[in-house]
Amino acid sequence: MKKWQRSSGEEEGEGKVKGSEASTGIEMNVVSRDKVESMGSMEKLRFILDGVKSGNIVVLEGGLTAEEQMKLIELTMLEVDESFTGIEISGYPAKRGLLNLRRKTRLTIIGPAAKMKTIRKDKDLISAIISTT
Amino acid sequence: MRWALSKLITALFFRKKAVKIGIYGPPNAGKTTLANRIIHTFVDNNEDMGVATEIPHETRRVIKREGVLIDLRRRIMNSNRDRNRDRDHDPRPRGSRAKLMLDVVDTPGLATKIDFRDFMAYGLEEDEAKRRAKEATEGVIEAIKWLDDIDGVILLMDSTEDPYTQTNVVIIGNMEARGIPIIIAANKIDLPDATPQRIKNAFPQHRVVPVSALKGDNMEELYEEMAKVFR
């Protein structure tokens, strides 16, 4: 089982957790709700895809809307090739907000398909295997 | 004469256009099999919309078939005649009398990952597998773009698989956000390990119709639901 530690020099609102052995570990970027909300949709998607293509796991507090997730799938397909086979994405489903109008997203985790595999998911739990090889 | 004129005016000025119904879902859920089943039932038994195989991403381009009339009344009458059944004792509900003009849109399977090596496991040569993977990525993009032009969605899920995938959640979330009506069809109920109830439990806010597009099981219920929801 891997141990994770917080890296130094992290940006405000963005927690970066690195594997204790840099050569075999996987970088995990845990992004706060404030940081997520400060980014525009395309900026957010580019940030995620760049991170995932570099082999990182990206966790967004507050998550992505269904529309943003669909756009992310579309952008991903534009970049799939022999070395990058796509993404694995999991999220807690959105909750209805005030008067049942606004859909509040909760959390989304995105990783490279070659390294991450969701094994179980329900409305409040995501179990995933992250491979370091 | 007056009746004919009235029909002509209605046809010219108040004609209801066909509703575009997209068949969406993950690869290998049976989307093309369902599209073919609809065409065989209501258009021509010898016409296929596409080819269905066990290899994922067999459909890599959106295929549209215009002007499919779902005429349940006619179908029931034919079926009653065929089975020598008394109409008064037909167990089907009154909703069965509905008509609906559709444009059926069969879409490539939505996926978040496509690896050419997966196709090689089905015996494809490397070059062919790479070409298929490239076309499959384009197909996913095309299917997403088509959502802008769709009036309703049949979301097809394989009832032998875990339904709670992010792709299914994303499709449903997008349809809800756009206000587009959606029916979930739990396909492959002819298989012994099918559990359509799992799909009902995962998406309780939506109508789930268990079907077998391959065998034609429970298709009447799906057609009735389509006539009700997409009208």
Please explain how this structure is put together.
The complex is a heterodimer of chains A (133) and B (231). Chain A is α+β, with helices and mostly antiparallel strands and 133 residues long. Chain A has one domain. Chain A is 25% helix and 35% strand. Chain A has three helices and ten strands, in the order βββααβαββββββ. Chain A has helices at 33-38, 41-53, 66-79, and strands at 4-6, 14-19, 28-31, 57-61, 87-91, 95-96, 103-104, 107-112, 116-122, 125-130. In chain A, the strands form three sheets. Chain A has a six-stranded mixed beta sheet with strand order 1-2-3-4-8-5. In chain A, strands 6-7 form a two-stranded antiparallel ribbon. Chain A is globular and about 40 Å long. Residues 1-12 of chain A have low confidence and may be disordered. Chain B is α/β, with parallel strands linked by helices. Chain B has one domain (20-229): Rossmann fold, CATH 3.40.50.300. Helices cover 40% and strands 17% of the residues of chain B. Chain B has eight helices and six strands; from the N terminus they run H-E-H-E-H-E-H-H-E-H-E-H-E-H. A six-stranded mixed beta sheet of chain B has the order 2-3-1-4-5-6, with helices on both faces. In chain B, helix 6 (166-178) links the parallel strand 4 (152-158) and strand 5 (182-187). Chain B is globular and about 65 Å long. The two termini of chain B are 30 Å apart.
